[in-house]
Design a protein that fits this description.
pyruvate-formate lyase- activating enzyme; Rossmann fold; about 20% strand; 19 strands; OB fold (Dihydrolipoamide Acetyltransferase, E2P); 6-stranded parallel β-sheet; 12 helices; single chain; about 35% helix; alpha/beta; 3 domains; binds iron/sulfur cluster
Length: about 450
C-alpha cells in the first residue's frame, strides 16, 4: 500500500525576495512528491520562512513560530521547520532558545530539504545553517508560485556589499552576487509562458546588477533584453540604490514602453550629516540630482522611496529637514520606518539614541505629511485613463474589482477600485478615474474601442 505523501504547509514572512525563496522551497519539495497544503492545521510539517531585518519583523517571526508550537503541542502537526533570515542571523542561539522546533535552515541549502523533512518525520532534530551564504538559484530551479498567476518576482541578484550602518542584511544574505543574464531571461520566458504579465525585478540592490559578474553595471542591458521578450507586458524595477542610478538605466526606463515608469529607490534620509553616518554613499545634492533626472527624463514616473525616522543622533533640525523634503519632493509612494537598533550593525550601541517616544512622534509626522502628499497627488488623476492590471475581484460578484496602475507595485503600493462588466482577475482593463482616496484611486471600466 503506497504511503501517503508527507503534507507540507509554508508560511512566508518578510519581503518579496524572501517570497521567491519560499516558492523555491515549495517547488523543490513538490518535485520530490511531497504534498503541499495552504492550511497549516492540516499539514504534517509546517515551514516558516522568516524575516529578521528589524525588531518588528523578528517579533512577527517569533510569534508565528510560537503559534505553531501550540499547534504541535496540541498534536495537530508533527513538526516545525524554521528557515530564512532568523536562523541565518541567530543560528545555534535560536536553536537553543526554541527547543520545540524540529529543524533550522538558513537562506540556502534548499536542495537538502527533502532529506531534512524525512529526517524530521523520522524524529530527528536538524540544524543546517551555513555561514557566508553564496547561493543563487537559476531558471531550472523548481518554484511553486505563491503570487497570483498574472504577476511574479524574479530575483536578479542576492546579497549586498554595501555597509549601511543601520542594516544587518549583508550579514544575513552575504555579499552581492548577480545571476547570469541568460538564466534570468530564460526564467522570464518560462514565466510568460505560464501566463505572467508583470515581472517585478528584485534583489538587495538591483542597480548593482552585473558589476560582479560582467565587471560593469548591466541592469539597463538586462531590462532591454527582457523588454524584447514576446508576451511581457510590464517590467518593474524594485530595490534600486540612489548611488548607482546611471543615465543608461534612465534612458531604458524612458524609452522602453514595457518598462513601467516606476521605480522603488530608498533614500533613507536627506540630511548630509545623517546620510554620512548611515554610510549611504549619497548626499542631499546627489539625491536631488537623481530625482531631477528621473522626473525630467521619464514623464509621469512614479517614485517610491523609504526613509528612517530617529537614526541615532538625529536632531530636531535634521529631522525637520527630512520632513520638509518629504513635503517638497512629493514622492508618489513612501514607506517610513522607525529606526530599529540592530545588534551587529555599526550604528548599534550609539550613545546618541533618540528616545523611543520621540522616534515614534517623528514617524507619525512623516506618515501624516505623506498622506497629505499622496492625497494631493491622487487628485491630479481625476478624469485620467489608466491601464489597470486586475488583482482581485469582489467575491459577492457585485462587479467591483481591485487592480493596480503602472504606479503600483504588488502588495506595497496603492490600488484602483473599479467597477464594470466582464472583468477577470489578470486582465488589463482601461479605467477612467472618477474618485480618489488618500492612497488609492476609484474608477470605472472604459468600453473597449
Ligand atoms: S543597500 Fe544598505 S540598506 Fe540596502 S540591503 Fe544593502 S546594506 Fe542594507
Amino acid at each position: 500500500m503506497p504511503t501517503k505523501p508527507t503534507k507540507i504547509s509554508l508560511i512566508s514572512l518578510g519581503c518579496a525576495r524572501n517570497l521567491v525563496d519560499s516558492e523555491i522551497i515549495l517547488g523543490t519539495l513538490k518535485d520530490y512528491g511531497f504534498a503541499v497544503t495552504d492550511s497549516p492545521r492540516s499539514a504534517d510539517i509546517v515551514i516558516v520562512n522568516t524575516c529578521s531585518f528589524i525588531e518588528d519583523a523578528k517579533k512577527e517571526s517569533i510569534e508565528t513560530i510560537l503559534d505553531l508550537v501550540e499547534l504541535k503541542n496540541a498534536g495537530r502537526i508533527k513538526g516545525i521547520l524554521v528557515t530564512g533570515c532568523l536562523p541565518q542571523r541567530y543560528g545555534k542561539a535560536l536553536q537553543r532558545e526554541l527547543g520545540e522546533i524540529n529543524g533550522f535552515i538558513g537562506v540556502e541549502g534548499f536542495a537538502r530539504l527533502p532529506k531534512i523533512i524525512n529526517d524530521i518525520m523520522a524524529g530527528k532534530r536538524v540544524y543546517s545553517v551555513t555561514r557566508n551564504p553564496a547561493y543563487l538559484y537559476d531558471w531550472k530551479t523548481p518554484r511553486q508560485a505563491l503570487t497570483p498567476r498574472h504577476f511574479a518576482y524574479i530575483k536578479i541578484s542576492e546579497g549586498c556589499s554595501h555597509k549601511c550602518s543601520f542594516c544587518v542584511i549583508p550579514k544575513i544574505r552575504g555579499r552581492h552576487r548577480s545571476r547570469g543574464m541568460g538564466s534570468i531571461v530564460a526564467e522570464a520566458q518560462a514565466l510568460i509562458g505560464r501566463g505572467v504579465k508583470e515581472i517585478n525585478l528584485v534583489g538587495q540592490d538591483t542597480t548593482l546588477y552585473g558589476v560582479d559578474l560582467y565587471r560593469r553595471p548591466a541592469l539597463a542591458e538586462l531590462l532591454e533584453k527582457l523588454a524584447r521578450l514576446k508576451g511581457v507586458r510590464w517590467l518593474r524595477l524594485l530595490y534600486a540604490h540612489p548611488a548607482h542610478f546611471n543615465d543608461g538605466l534612465i534612458s531604458v526606463m524612458a524609452g522602453e514602453e514595457r518598462v513601467c515608469k516606476y521605480v522603488d529607490v530608498p533614500i533613507q534620509h536627506i540630511n548630509d550629516r545623517i546620510l554620512k553616518a548611515m554610510r549611504r554613499g549619497t548626499s542631499n545634492a546627489s539625491i536631488r540630482d537623481l530625482l531631477a533626472r528621473l522626473r525630467g527624463r521619464v514623464p509621469g514616473i512614479a517614485i517610491r522611496t523609504a526613509v528612517i525616522a530617529g537614526f541615532p543622533g538625529e536632531t530636531d533640525k535634521e529631522f525637520g529637514e527630512l520632513l520638509d523634503f518629504v513635503k517638497e519632493a512629493k514622492f508618489e509612494r513612501l514607506g517610513a520606518f522607525v529606526y530599529s537598533e540592530e545588534e551587529g550593525t555599526p550604528a548599534a550601541g550609539s550613545k546618541r539614541a533618540v528616545p523611543e517616544k520621540e522616534k515614534l512622534a517623528r514617524w507619525n509626522e512623516l506618515m501624516k505629511a505623506q498622506r497629505r502628499v499622496s492625497s494631493e497627488n491622487n487628485k491630479r488623476f481625476i478624469g485620467s485613463r489608466f491601464k489597470v492590471l486586475i488583482d482581485e475581484k469582489e467575491a459577492s460578484g457585485g462587479g467591483s474589482c481591485m487592480g493596480r496602475t503602472y504606479m503600483d507595485a504588488p502588495e506595497i503600493d496603492g490600488a484602483v477600485y473599479i467597477k464594470g462588466p466582464g472583468i477577470r482577475i489578470g486582465d488589463f482593463v482601461t479605467a477612467r478615474i472618477t474618485g480618489t482616496l488618500e492612497y488609492d484611486l476609484i474608477g470605472v471600466k472604459e468600453p473597449v474601442k
